Amino acid sequence: MKVTIRSWTGVATWRWVANDDNCGICRMAFDGCCPDCKLPGDDCPLVWGQCSHCFHIHCIMKWLNSQQVQHLCPMCRQEWKFKE
Amino acid sequence: MLNSYWLDANMSTDDVWKKICLAFPILADNECSRECPEDNVLEEIKELKLNKCIEDIVICRIEQIMRQKITPDFWSRFSERKTEIGGFERFKDAVDFLYNSFSNFLPMLENLEKFRTISRINRVIYGEETLLGTFKVIVTSTLLSQLPLTHQIITEDFYKVSFKVFCNADKSDVDQDESSEDVVQCGGCSHEIEQCHCQAILLVFHETNRKLIELDLLERLAGEVITTLIHIRIENHVQESCKGSFDTSYISSLESWLSTVVMGWLTHIYNVNAVSTQSSIKKFHQKISHFLYETYTRTRIEQLFNIIIEYPDSQPAVEDLRICLQKTDLRLYLTQKLQRALETRLLHPGVNTPDVLTAYVAAIRALRQLDPTGVLLETVTLPVRHYLRWRDDTVRCVVSSLTEEGPSELADELVRGEALQLDEGAPSDEDMTNWEGWNPDPVDADPSKTSKSRRTSDIISMLVNVYGSKELFVNEYRTLLADRLLSQFTYNTEKEIRYLELLKLRFGESQLHYCEVMLKDVYDSKRINAHLHSDPNFKLDRQQFPSTAMILSAQFWPPFKEETLELPDFVKEHLQIYTKAFETLKGNRTLSWKPHLGSVNIDIELKDRKFNLTVSPIHATIIWHFQTKNQWTVEELSQLMHVPATVLRRKIAFWQSQGMLREISTDSFLLVEESSTRSKCPVPPDMVCEDEETESAMASAHDQREEELQVFWSYIVGMLTNLDLMPLERIHQMLKMFASQGPTAVECSLRELRNFLDRKVREHRLLFSGGFYRLPKS
Ligand SMILES: [Zn+2]
Ligand SMILES: [Zn+2]
Ligand SMILES: [Zn+2]
């Protein structure tokens, strides 16, 4: 007997490759979206800081905008710099 | 006694007695003599000054004759008979006899009345001022005092026979053409047509009734029989007219039947002197008209379950019933009857849920026509709602029929669209502009509900209200949608999007947001697949077979059943390449495969056969392994594929049914490389594996909810450990405070909580007394 696969449609779930499940700012799942968004993934992406912490981009931007003096990572209090 | 009034010493007692007897021969004679005494005889007796006494003696004598002779004679004619006609004759005979005897008394009564006048006696005997009146009372009371047990049979015969003749006369007017040559017997008198007695019977009937009326005996003697006969006749007629047909209104035809046929007969009975009997006929008409309505209403109520099932074809019957309910007092009867019918015919395990739902929807429509206030609907269908709530697949059935292809009442209803109204909502303001058209709710209305909510809630709302929670409903829709998307593997979601839009109109945007993301996932997957395959940089073009994926946003899909499957390495390599390609495209994102889900198209080449099949990954994997080795035990495959043996055995059954695998010993399967002639089953090419199970990949809503509620359980145990006793409301408040915070907030209505706690009580994990819950002493 010879079995030949002509096509294979699989089912997969996508997830962010991050060292945590939830955003440290909004507490929502990374694979979900921030409270201001409706659609996950492309529409509500993650960003990483040089400190290696990551957040929903909308969450960290809001956070940074609310900081008057210095831009610090809300998790580790180091200066926040976007990872290149 | 006579001595005390003795005045004339010249007359002996005998002389006086003779004189009295001369005036009233009845006293001496056994027969009523018709001879009238001379006027002077009466004058002479008057001189005796025994006036009242004489009258008493005469009346006493009349009573005696009635009691000892006439009445026994009259009733003796009511003895057994052989035929109805025989009975008819006997009744006539008896009445004739009575009438004659009665007439014989009349001259004597006249005489006595004369005596009364000249001796100026004014007295009331038996409530009657005239002697004729008194006499009639005597006749009636004596007759009734000797009433034989079987007298009704003969009376019935008399009226039955005549009614039959009467109805026949009426009928032959209506359908003359039908009573054609083959009818030899007259439908009225059962004689041969040539010798029809109908005319004679009617004549006798008329005459006899006239006599009874003259004697004031018609009501007393025959009233009950006539009424009973009419009732039976009405019942039969109603039954015959409207059995099984619900698409015609019968009220007017029944009414005209009543006023022509039945009333015609009654008029025939009473119409001796029209003026005096008119009012009693009118009263009779009202009574039997009420009886007709009641009978018809009862008949329709008996049929109501079938009427509902046939709705809207049965609209005329429902409309009849609506009118009848206003004229009768049978609302409660209807409620009880219909509830019982629903319980016995609908609410048992033998009826599947879609059928219960269909009946429920029909009931909603029919009962709303029957009672626009909605009260009847609410009361009658309460058990149905309770029952549906208890069935596991209700929500699923509702949702699937809502969004089903083809004609479906619910789908139509959905398209009709209207914002969803749930009972929980605050009582809405009654419409003040149309206050003059206001009507109070019926007495059996539930005062805790606004009449507006009853009047306006539509069918879908009623169905959703079965569960009382939009969330549960929407969740079930989500599961259904997930199953549909993952079983079809077409990326064509146009139709689903259209339904989703309709559902959003009803359930609101936010409730259905998850479903929107799911549909977007399917759409995006299509784009990603196309993109990855079109760009050679992703190296998918070098694969031995094209691999594509349905890429899901896990947070938005319902939870999946946990299942494992180890795919063949060859396949895994392909999927890894796909994953790499995805990672390259999306950056910082990766895929987790659900290996048991998907759809595989395979060619199978055997020595003498070739197939192309579309199967599930697990089926593909099983047959794949038979390439390297043509015989496997379930145990071996189970270890290799990481699939439980029970599941495997079920899946292998598919390949057995295809004639590809054969069980050579228990749990050991062999590839059938060459089909023997007998099992040469022609498998159509390009078939899709119609699996024995179209089972859901999702955990059912019920399971999900149970799991969610379990979260509460630990809270509840904690609370009760600390506080010992708590009422339901308190527990609910506490849970709201503590358990429903954070991203996985779980809502739980008071009712749901009560059900949950009650179940724990049944499981003996909680105690409930005096309105308080507590933990059992361990
Ligand atoms: Zn966030
Ligand atoms: Zn966002
Ligand atoms: Zn940091």
Task: Characterize the structure shown.
The complex is a heterodimer of chains A (about 80) and B (about 775). Chain A has about 80 residues and is an alpha+beta fold. Chain A has one domain: 2-Layer Sandwich (Herpes Virus-1), CATH 3.30.40.10. In chain A, about 10% of the residues lie in helices and about 25% in strands. Chain A has a two-stranded antiparallel ribbon. In chain A, a hairpin with a 5-residue loop joins strand 2 and strand 3. The termini of chain A are far apart. The model of chain A has no long low-confidence stretch (mean pLDDT about 90). Chain B is mainly alpha-helical and about 775 residues long. Chain B folds into 5 domains: about 1-155; about 295-425 and about 445-485, no CATH class; about 485-585, no CATH class; about 600-690, Winged helix-like DNA-binding domain superfamily/Winged helix DNA-binding domain (Arc Repressor Mutant, subunit A, Orthogonal Bundle); about 700-775, Winged helix-like DNA-binding domain superfamily/Winged helix DNA-binding domain (Arc Repressor Mutant, subunit A, Orthogonal Bundle). Chain B is about 60% helix and about 5% strand. Chain B is built from 30 helices and 10 strands. In chain B, the strands form 3 sheets. A 3-stranded mixed beta sheet of chain B has the order 2-3-7. In chain B, strands 4-6-5 form a 3-stranded antiparallel beta sheet. Chain B has a 3-stranded antiparallel beta sheet with strand order 8-10-9. The relative contact order of chain B is 0.03. The interface of A and B includes residues 2, 11 and 38 of A. Bound molecules: zinc ion (ZN) (3 copies). Chain A: Belongs to the RING-box family. Chain A: Its main location: nucleus. Chain A: Keywords: Cell cycle, Cell division, Metal-binding, Mitosis, Nucleus, Ubl conjugation pathway, Zinc, Zinc-finger.
